[in-house]
Amino acid sequence: MSNHNLSRDEAATRSALITTHSYDVTLDVRDAADPATAGYPSTSTIRFSAEPGSATFLDFISGGVKSVMLNGKALEVDRVVDRDRIILEDLAAENTVTVTGTALYSRSGEGMHRFVDPADGQCYLYTQYEPADSRRVFANFEQPDLKAEFTFHVIAPAGWEVASNGVETARAPLADDAAACSWDFATTKRMSTYITTILAGPYFKATDHWGATLDDGTRLDVPLALYCRASLAESFDADELFRLTKSGLAFFNELFDYPYPWGKYDQAFVPEYNLGAMENPGLVTFTEKYVYASRATDAQYQARANTLMHEMAHMWFGDLVTMTWWDDLWLKESFADYMGTLGVDRATDWDTAWVNFASKRKAWAYVQDQLPTTHPIVADIPDLEAAKQNFDGITYAKGASVLKQLVSYVGFDDFIAGSRQYFRDHEFGNTSLQDLLQALSVASGRDLAGWARQWLQTSGISTITADIVDDDGIMGAVTLQQDARDPLTGKQELRPHRLRLGLYDPDSSGHLVRRESIELDVSGPSTLVAELAGRPRPALLLVNDEDLSYAKVRLDALSEHTVRSSLGTIQDPMARALCWTALWDSARDGATPAVRYIGAVERFAPVETGIGVLQNVLGNAATAIERYVPDAVRDGVRKDFLAVAAAQLQSAAPGSDHQLAWARALADVSRHGDSELPLLRGILEGATVIDGLTVDAELRWSFWQALAAHGQAMQRELDAELEADKTASGREGHAVASSARPDASVKAAAWDAAVNTTGLSNEILSATITGFTIAPRDLLEPYIEPYFECLERVWTERSIEIAGRIVRGLYPGAQDLVAGMEPITHPVLVTTDRWLQEHTDAPRALRRIIIEQRSHLLRALTAQAAG
User: Fold this and answer.
1) DSSP state of 236
2) What per-residue string of b and e applies to 121-150 under the rule 16 or more CB within 10 Å gives b?
3) How far is the C-alpha of 420 from the C-alpha of 316, rounded, in Å?
4) Spatial separation of the C-alpha atoms in residues 382 and 391, rounded to whole Å
5) Residues 807-823: what's their mean pLDDT?
6) Are the CB atoms for 625 and 637 separated by under 8 Å?
7) 445 CB burial (10 A radius; 0-12, 13-18, 19+)
8) pLDDT value at 167 more than 70
9) pLDDT score of 1 more than 50
10) Band of the pLDDT at 487, cuts 50, 70, 90?
11) Of 148, 159, 598, 671, which has the highest C-beta tally within 10 A?
12) 156 strand-pairing partners
């Protein structure tokens, strides 16, 4: 095992041996703007207790260790440094170790990421560590349960903004370098290494403050700051972000009855970020894609607010109280996902937070939970590579969905009371599943061990179907059938569900409305709903109405007919979203032909009022066309959809979010179909004007990418567009378009840049891969065998973030089923299976990606076989 990949057993052994007290870290990044400078000086002094005479190790992925001083004695570097570990022997009861070395700047988004803004040439730095990349910046004990206090010092160019977890306590010019300053930051409270952070560069900064009077009469004052790159300042809606921040802090402080514990609350929006955001206490980092330089829909602004609330909830769930090891990652992510949506619902003006959660977040969980690599919410995480892979739809969205059901089960007030006690009992400490269950059980008076076993410690998803005996329009026996086969074990995991049945019928104006709702408990393979017997059969019986439980729903025949004929007349937004999801699940599972889903989108998406739901169903339609529709009919289906999208673009309310959503869908699907390319070209050149449509940079690049994919955009045109848009997003858009051109030499160059060189940053790499994969099948066929041949080399040579992007993005998953062929016999599946059989000793995380991509391909081929 590589030293990069710390195991759970090693971490447990180390935490049993030592107790960390404090870190004092100095980083010198004054030369970061010089591209020839690969690294920077890093000094880390650590105080810790240990069993006398014992030995342990530090983690430091570096460009070289200069010195190691343990308890006043200089250690021989060549003897104690073992690749990325520093061996410490003959420890005392109390120890002080100082490590000096060179840390390396990153272009992968891991550790200290360095970005040069193409708009103005300015250099920006930020750190990102989860799950274990602080060891790329300073020597430390890299595991979540070895918490300590941290004091950071940073040397940087004098004109820069520099920030860390603690407030700035001093800033002074260097005596020997007038162009640089030294920043000192306040010592933090106890926290884990992976949530420490540094921000440095010529960032634009806005400031504000928030305060509250606590129950004991004391005043809580929290300084606020927002950061973004200087070239984005004009697009930075700081006032709105401060408004949301203050609303969230007020909401969570009252809800959790535990004052915000981290002093200040900064939020930085940074380039080329690998995540949506990261909950570093005192300095949360977000992807700068949330700074909308181009027009964004209301759903995008709501999603940003959800992320903001999610990270704020982490200040308590995850930062104040942290899981002991990554097995219990759900203890922070599931809660933050639930609390993020709750915060948007209760602390902002949006009223569709749970609708969008049901439509998008749960859909992510449903996809992940049907893969052969599914896992329980409380997962088995043997090492750091496995931890990296488990930031997925199960840990986040399934966990949040299950918590939503738990709230329904124990009651919201008891759930919050248990959470409050959990914070008080474990503040600045580490926990596992049993610690939380104990707090919730005491608060609710319920034994939650059985609930936890069934919902947190098993994998897979239930499918619930209503079986209705119909006696000439009168319901006889109504039975809810539950199928919950675990993809891993094949075992039936029949979980208990608290859910509602909604009975919908047309009103006098023809709208489908709920005439009544029945709440009940579902358990076992079959549950009789006795109270429905003898009642008129509704036009739509909606299982899991109001989305209380986590389960897929199969509509009964009459209900499915009603939905396919009258979906647009359903008045309740949540009910409508759940019906869209039921149709999509049916298409993904191959239970109904994908063309029927696309037909529903063409018919009802034009009247869908929820912009978040509309964006999701249009994205699903694009996926269905290219992956699930049989090749023999795909061109016609695509052409029909593009005609609908073009018509809706021109008929939607001018300047509306719906108009923008249709424009994006038109561009997306046009990457593979050319029937509406003249319209896109006309819009780009100004010959065609769509009333109210803002053809800004983001939309322009999406149109250029569609044209380029069909050879209808010359490289010089793409280069001219980039010259007019010298921004980071413009550079990414240009990379996609350039790599999408249907030319064998273009594809060869893109493949070589992605697989055989290391010159691309994380985001440009992904853009290049995206463009490469937009191509006719015959251009990609020559890369199938080379893909499998390069896997282990790529995984060994690249960081896990970059390797994951390559392995996942270049998998040859866009395949078609030949008439008469069984899906399982497709050559790419056969090749994949052979690789898996011949590489049983390959890293688990690498195999997981391949297994998941294989599953996605098999699902697509199976859907194609369904017609």
Assistant:
1) -
2) ebbbbbbbbbbbbbbbbbbbbbbbbbbbbb
3) 10
4) 15
5) 95
6) yes
7) exposed
8) yes
9) no
10) low
11) 598
12) 181
Amino acid letter, residue 743: D
CB burial of 341-369 (b: ≥16 within 10 Å; e: otherwise) equals bbbbbebbebebbbbbbbbbbbbebbbbb
Look at the alpha carbons of 43, 45, 50, 54 in this order and tell me if their dihedral is positive or negative.
positive
Give the type of residue at 804. Answer: G
State the residue for tokens 């343990």: 70
CB atoms near residue 738 (< 10 Å): 22
Burial of residue 239, with CB atoms counted within 10 A of its CB: 0-12 exposed, 13-18 middle, 19 or more buried = exposed
Spatial contact of 703 and 684, defined as CB atoms under 8 Å apart: yes
- Determine which helix (DSSP H) or strand (DSSP E) holds 208, and give its type and residue range: strand 204-213
DSSP assignment letter at 547: G
What is the reported pLDDT for 46? 98
- Bond prior to 496 in cis (omega within 30° of 0): no
* Token output for 498: 């608290």
| 650 SS3 class | helix
What pLDDT is attached to residue 716?
97
**pLDDT for res 3:** 56
557: its two tokens? 């025949």
Place of tokens 């306590």: 169
Backbone angles phi, psi at 177, to 5 degrees: -155, 95
What are the residues whose beta carbons fall under 8 Å from the beta carbon of 245, sequence distance 6 or more? 210, 224, 265, 267, 308, 312
**Ramachandran region, residue 322 (left: φ > 0; alpha: ψ -120 to 50; beta: rest):** beta
Structure tokens of 244? 């949301």
Give the single-character DSSP code of 625.
I
Whether the model pTM is above 0.85: yes
Residues of 674-703 as b/e, b for ≥16 C-beta within 10 angstroms?
bbbbebbbebbeeeeebeebebebbbbbbb
How does pLDDT run across 255-297, given as a tens digit for each residue? 999 999 999 999 999 999 999 999 999 999 999 999 999 999 9
User: Residue 814 and residue 794: Cα distance in Å, rounded?
Assistant: 21
Q: How far is CA 358 from CA 364, 412, 576, in A?
A: 10, 19, 11
- pLDDT tops 80 at residue 152: yes
Q: Which residues contact 546 (CB under 8 A, 6 or more apart)?
A: 500, 502, 517, 574
> Which amino acid belongs to residue 738?
S
**Chain segment 172-219, per-residue pLDDT in tens:** 999 999 999 999 999 999 999 999 999 999 999 999 999 999 888 999
Which residues, in sequence order, are CB contacts of 645 under 8 Å at separation 6+?
618, 662, 665, 666, 669, 676
Confidence band for 409, pLDDT divided at 50, 70 and 90: confident
Instruction: Label the pairing between strands 463-471 and 512-522.
Output: unpaired
Which residues have C-beta within 8 Å of that of residue 706, sequence separation ≥ 6?
667, 668, 670, 671, 677, 680
Residue reference for tokens 């179907």: 465
Residue 241 DSSP symbol? H
> So what's the pLDDT on residue 486?
61
488, pLDDT greater than 70: no
- The two tokens of residue 132 are 């274990």
DSSP 412: H
Contacts of 212 (CB under 8 A, 6+ apart): 219, 220, 249, 250, 253, 259
pLDDT digits (tens, 9 = 90+) for 38-96: 999 999 999 999 999 999 999 999 999 999 999 999 999 999 999 999 999 999 999 99
Q: Residue 254 contacts by C-beta under 8 Å, 6 or more apart in sequence?
A: none
Specify burial of residue 748 (Cβ count, 10 A radius: 0-12, 13-18, 19+): middle
**Rg from Cα positions in the chain:** 28
Q: Which residues does the annotation mark as catalytic?
A: 311
Query: How confident is the model over 640-666, as a mean pLDDT?
Result: 98
Tokens describing residue 459 = 């994998």
Residue 464 and residue 478 in contact, taking contact as beta carbons nearer than 8 Å: no
> Strand 277-278's sheet: what is its strand order?
204-213, 219-228, 265-270, 283-287, 277-278
Cα 550 to Cα 497: distance, rounded to the nearest angstrom: 8
Phi, psi (deg, nearest 5) at residue 83:
55, -105
